[in-house]
Every structure is written in structure tokens, then in C-alpha cells.
Amino acid sequence: MTPPEAPRDGTANHGETPPAVSVCASTTITVLRKRSDFLKAARARRQGAGSMMVQALKRAEGEAQGIRVGFTCSKKVGNAVARNRAKRRLREAARLVLPEMGRPGWDYVLIGRPTDTAARPFDALLDDLRRALRKLHAPKP
């Protein structure tokens, strides 16, 4: 079986880059890159989970399509190796959970926590993200 980013027929043109997002996902997920997008999400709703903090912002109409997600870890998480490991785990969790529980038209920022993000069992990390998303999207009382 070929990976999702590989062409289905096994052929590719020279210089053709695979898509950054899995072709299996029904919803388009893109990665936040601009600092201004992170700052907007920081002023929006946030929900703590055991191994991460999740910030969520409903975008204005016509601003962008699909789900957008960003990842960040401060130096409190550890050295560069520890921060990168935590972000890799957050990226994989987002790849698995956001297509099913994320909402199009929303931006999400996943923030790693010291020791918890890297050390928590991966199934628990996924459950933390699911729980945080349920709480963020629950109707306000």
C-alpha cells in the first residue's frame, strides 16, 4: 500500500511535491505559519488538557477554508530536542483527531506542556485532545 501523499498510480512528475495534508482526510487541514494567526487564537477560547493547552478561534467568514492548526512549545518544555519531540507528538495527535472532531472555519493552536506532552502515553494524549475539543465546542451556558 502506498502512503497517502504518494500518487495512486505510482507515477510522479519530476519536481512534483506531495500535498502537505493527507488526501484521505475529507476536511482540509493546513498549518498556521503567521505570528498574527497565533496571536488571534491566543485571544480566543482556550481549554487545558492533561498534556496540552488547546486554543480555538472561529474565523470570520471568507477568511480561510477548512481547519487550520498551529503548534508551539516554549523553552519551559526543554531543550530543542524535547520541544521538537513534543511538537511531533502534537502534530500526529492533530492529524488523527482533528478530521473527526475539528470544525471547518476554526483555527486551533496546540501548546505543549513541560514533561507532560512528551511523557504522556499517546492514547492518553489523543484522549486529552478529544476532551479539550468537546469542551471548546460545547454550547456556552
TrEMBL record:
Region annotation Disordered: where it falls in the sequence: 1-20
InterPro entries to which the protein is assigned, alphabetical: Ribosomal_Su5_D2-typ_SF (IPR020568), Ribsml_uS5_D2-typ_fold_subgr (IPR014721), RNase_P (IPR000100), RNase_P_CS (IPR020539)
EC supergroup of this enzyme: hydrolase
Listed EC numbers: 3.1.26.5
GO molecular function, one term: ribonuclease P activity
Annotated keywords: Endonuclease, Hydrolase, Nuclease, RNA-binding, tRNA processing
A Pfam short name: Ribonuclease_P
Recorded family membership: Belongs to the RnpA family.
General function of this protein: RNaseP catalyzes the removal of the 5'-leader sequence from pre-tRNA to produce the mature 5'-terminus. It can also cleave other RNA substrates such as 4.5S RNA. The protein component plays an auxiliary but essential role in vivo by binding to the 5'-leader sequence and broadening the substrate specificity of the ribozyme.
Xref: NCBIfam families: rnpA
Assembly and binders: Consists of a catalytic RNA component (M1 or rnpB) and a protein subunit.
Protein name: Ribonuclease P protein component
Species of origin: Ruegeria alba
